[in-house]
């Protein structure tokens, strides 16, 4: 019995030692994992300190900004950078507070989609005071002297819209629903379509029955504008909408009056629902922006700014006070004829989703 007790005690002692070793190992692994996630001096595979990017979005209400966020985050991680994302939900003060938060996280570079073209200059100023370079992403911050403005050619967006309207309707009544006045892109798009439309307006070939600006790009406002015009018995041959969300609001109003598919509607951003409407025939065209190219170029240039490497950008644009570096990509007009060879081929939207209805 004594011998059996000794063996039992020995087994218990061995099991206790094994248990202690396992617990110690697990605790050590957890601590190492915590350091891997939270250690600000974490190194990337090349041995350099990981670059930390702050990404401040004015909104995520439209589908396109969700795509921008997701693609930009993926591109940042591919290059071995960390990225912290903040969304201001169309609130200027929230965006300012969120940029303060990002700077408190010791970001190396700030990428900002301004909610307001003027008020966001305060956020840029804060970053610059801390020596943090700033990239104005897709929307330009005015009078702020950002280190780089990167976008698609918004003037060309307006030109493509107007050219297709003219080709389709020839002559007639046009309703224009612009985006928010707080977004400088709206001004640039207007500059583009005005360059095409104004000569025809002066000749009497095109009649602009109304031109409105939708605060915060709300599609409900587009619905209201179109609905009220139709209730007044205003004849509408075509609608230029500042983006696909506004186009959706316009088409919903047209549908209420049994005019869906009978009035030419054009938007931009290639939202999935817009692509579905194009193949169904209720929206004529959208402007496609290959966001993956924009996001990849943005992250690459953000890394170069942090490392003080040269950025090969020849163009500049005036922000109201300063000439800032301007990296611009071309947008693509997409309709039913080329949607397969552009949006679907690029994987921007899957074919089964576009043709779902």
Distance between the termini: 81 Å
- Strand line-up across the major sheet: 2-1-3-4-5-12-11
The dominant shape is: globular
The second-level CATH architecture of the largest domain is 3-Layer(aba) Sandwich
* Biggest beta sheet attributes: 7 strands, mixed
CATH class of the largest domain: Alpha Beta
**What fold name goes in the CATH topology slot of the largest domain?**
Rossmann fold
* SSE run: HEHEHEHEEHEHEHEHEHEHEEEHH
How many whole angstroms does the radius of gyration measure? 27 Å
Residue stretches low in confidence (pLDDT < 50, at least 5 long) are: 17-46
List keywords for this structure.
Rossmann fold, 2 domains, 357 residues, single chain, seven-stranded mixed β-sheet, four-stranded parallel β-sheet, alpha/beta, globular
Descriptive notes:
By secondary structure, the protein is an alpha/beta fold. The chain folds into two domains: 52-146 and 291-330, Rossmann fold, CATH 3.40.50; 154-289 and 333-354, Rossmann fold, CATH 3.40.50. Helices cover 48% and strands 18% of the residues. The protein has helices at residues 2-38, 63-78, 92-104, 121-129, 154-169, 184-202, 219-231, 244-256, 272-280, 291-306, 340-344, 351-354; strands at 52-57, 82-87, 109-113, 134-137, 148-152, 172-178, 206-213, 238-241, 264-266, 286-288, 316-318, 323-329, 332-334. A seven-stranded mixed beta sheet has the order 2-1-3-4-5-12-11, with helices on both faces. Strands 7-6-8-9 form a four-stranded parallel beta sheet, sandwiched between helices. The longest helix is centred in the first third of the chain and has 37 residues, at 2-38. The radius of gyration is 27 Å and the shape is globular.
């Amino acid at each position: 019995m004594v011998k059996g007790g000794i063996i039992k005690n020995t087994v218990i002692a061995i099991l206790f030692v094994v248990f202690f070793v396992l617990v110690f190992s697990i605790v050590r692994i957890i601590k190492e994992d915590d350091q891997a996630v939270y250690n600000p001096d974490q190194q990337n595979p090349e041995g350099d300190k990981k670059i930390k990017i702050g990404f401040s979005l004015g909104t995520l209400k439209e589908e396109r900004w969700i795509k921008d966020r997701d693609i930009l985050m993926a591109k940042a991680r591919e290059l071995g950078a960390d990225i912290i994302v903040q969304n201001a939900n169309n609130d200027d003060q929230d965006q300012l507070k969120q940029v303060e938060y990002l700077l408190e996280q010791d970001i190396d570079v700030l990428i900002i989609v301004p909610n307001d073209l003027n008020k966001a200059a305060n956020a840029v100023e804060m970053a610059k005071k801390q020596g943090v370079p700033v990239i104005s992403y897709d929307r330009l911050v005015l009078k702020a002297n950002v280190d780089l403005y990167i976008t698609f050619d918004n003037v060309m967006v307006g030109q493509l819209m107007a050219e297709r309207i003219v080709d389709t309707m020839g002559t007639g009544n046009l309703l224009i629903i612009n985006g928010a006045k707080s977004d400088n892109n709206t001004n640039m798009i207007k500059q583009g379509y005005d360059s095409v439309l104004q000569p025809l307006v002066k000749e009497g070939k095109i009649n602009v029955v109304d031109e409105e600006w939708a605060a915060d790009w709300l599609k409900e406002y587009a619905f209201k504008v179109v609905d009220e015009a139709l209730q007044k018995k205003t004849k509408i041959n075509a609608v230029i909408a500042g983006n696909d969300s506004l186009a959706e609001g316009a088409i919903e109003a047209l549908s209420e009056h049994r005019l869906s598919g009978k009035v030419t509607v054009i938007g931009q951003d290639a939202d999935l629902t817009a692509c579905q409407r194009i193949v169904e025939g209720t929206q004529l065209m959208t402007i496609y922006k290959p966001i993956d190219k924009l996001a990849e170029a943005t992250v690459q240039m953000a890394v170069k700014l942090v490392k003080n490497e040269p950025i090969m950008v020849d163009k500049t644009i005036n922000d109201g006070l300063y000439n800032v570096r301007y990296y611009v990509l071309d947008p693509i007009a997409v309709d039913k004829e080329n949607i397969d060879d552009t949006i679907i081929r690029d994987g921007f939207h899957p074919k089964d989703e576009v043709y779902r209805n």
